[in-house]
Write a structure and sequence with these properties.
Number of strands: 7
Largest sheet: 5 strands, mixed
CATH class of the largest domain: Alpha Beta
Helix content: 55-70%
Strand order of the largest sheet: 2-4-5-7-6
Order of helices and strands: HHHHHEHEEHEEHEE
Number of helices: 8
Structural class: alpha+beta
Shape: rod-shaped
CATH superfamily of the largest domain: Histidine kinase-like ATPase, C-terminal domain
Distance between the termini: 57 Å
Radius of gyration: 47 Å
Length: about 375
């Protein structure tokens, strides 16, 4: 736009110069006309005075000068005017070609490349150009399509990983269930202790399969953004013993430390139970030690902590353990899809809270911050 204004100013100055030159030539012609009038008057005076010979000579000389003046046609103004117009038209055509036609040709080529799947080549064009914002918008569209393609590819790879992981992790407990079921069918459980062991193992393996499928379903719902979080006000200390009793399954490995007064939170009750279950199962699977579950009331939040007394997690892995499908070096020997802590973090964040992992001496402490009921009185 600045170049166009500058060109228009130059053309206006050129036209002013040509107009000034034309006016000057016109004034010079008027001066000569006045001079001829004066000389004609002098010739008339000579004729009146009887000097006819001299008057004739002057008249002949004047006619000769006037004929010479008529033959001198000054086309300079016209030539200058035509040259200026031609120069302006040429500049306009060149400008339109460079500033209008060329960008559209580049946009056409860019659109063809994008249609062929080339999303890596940027459309470089100065935003100061007349069509700069337009071309910038096209390149932004390319970047968005590229990001969408990358996300789509990652989702496809994640789904492949999920299917492969689920197939592998379900295969082992199902094989154990089949083996123990066949043993029961063949009557290899003659002793009551052995029969109880077989049944206990089958139930435990069923729980493993159930946990895997629950995690996969939760993951699928989070991907579809259909995991419903319905906050409600309830006393965490009142429901926690029942939750831990269901998770204990006869094992005496969970210690519970809660205040003697009610600690009310505003969260989804069933999802909170799922969150606690994931943390307990993770601690059992990887630490294989006693587990301490504690609750602490703060000003506008409640801290729910699950701590084990195992070897913890390397500090270099702590920032990544809540990522989807992430499995650290120590976890690769255990069955699982790498979704436990990811689901914990997702539920906590959707409930308005957060998750923090910290290595202790010994063990690992996972602290979930949930909103206190008083801080969210408007949520129902």
């Amino acid at each position: 736009m600045k170049k166009l204004i500058f060109t228009a100013i130059l053309f206006a100055l050129l036209m002013l110069g040509v107009s000034g030159f034309t006016i000057l030539r016109s004034h010079q012609a008027d001066d000569r006309t006045g001079e001829y009038a004066v000389r004609l008057n002098e010739i008339e005076q000579l004729a009146r005075c009887g000097e006819n010979l001299r008057a004739g000579e002057c008249a002949a000389e004047l006619r000769r000068e006037m004929r010479e003046e008529e033959t001198k046609t000054d086309d300079s103004p016209i030539l200058l005017m035509c040259s200026a117009c031609l120069l302006f038209l040429t500049g306009t055509v060149i400008y339109c070609g460079c500033a209008i036609a060329a960008p559209f040709h580049r946009l056409t080529g860019f659109a063809e490349r994008v249609a062929c799947g080339d999303l890596d080549t940027p459309l470089e064009y100065g935003r100061s150009n007349f069509f700069g914002k337009f071309t910038w918008a096209f390149d932004s569209m390319r970047q968005e399509i590229r990001r969408a393609r990358i996300c789509e590819q990652e989702a496809i790879e994640n789904n492949k990983t999920v299917i492969a992981s689920l197939s592998h992790d379900i295969k082992t407990p199902v094989a154990s269930i089949r083996a123990y079921a066949e043993a029961l069918e063949l009557g290899m459980d003659s002793a009551p202790e052995k029969r109880a062991h077989y049944i206990s193992t089958i139930l435990r393996k069923c729980d493993e399969v159930s946990q895997l499928t629950d995690d996969m379903l939760t993951h699928a719902l989070t991907e579809l953004e259909r995991l419903r979080i319905v906050p409600e006000r309830f006393d965490l200390c009142a429901v926690l013993p029942d939750i831990l009793a269901d998770l204990s399954a006869g094992q005496d490995d969970i210690a519970c430390e809660t205040p003697s007064v009610p600690v009310c939170i505003c969260a989804d009750k069933s999802r909170t139970e799922q969150l606690i279950g994931n943390l307990i199962n993770n601690a059992r699977k990887y630490a294989k030690t006693k587990i301490t579950v504690s609750v602490k009331q703060e000003a506008d939040s409640v801290l729910l902590q699950v701590r084990d007394y195992g070897s913890g997690i390397p500090d270099s892995e702590l920032p990544f353990v809540c990522g989807k499908f992430y499995r650290g070096e120590a976890a690769k020997s255990e069955k699982g899809a790498g979704l436990g802590l990811y689901i914990v973090q997702y539920i906590a964040e959707q409930s308005g809270g957060s998750v923090r992992l910290q290595n202790c001496d010994p063990g690992l402490a996972v602290t979930v911050t949930l909103p206190a009921a008083d801080a969210n009185a408007g949520i129902s």
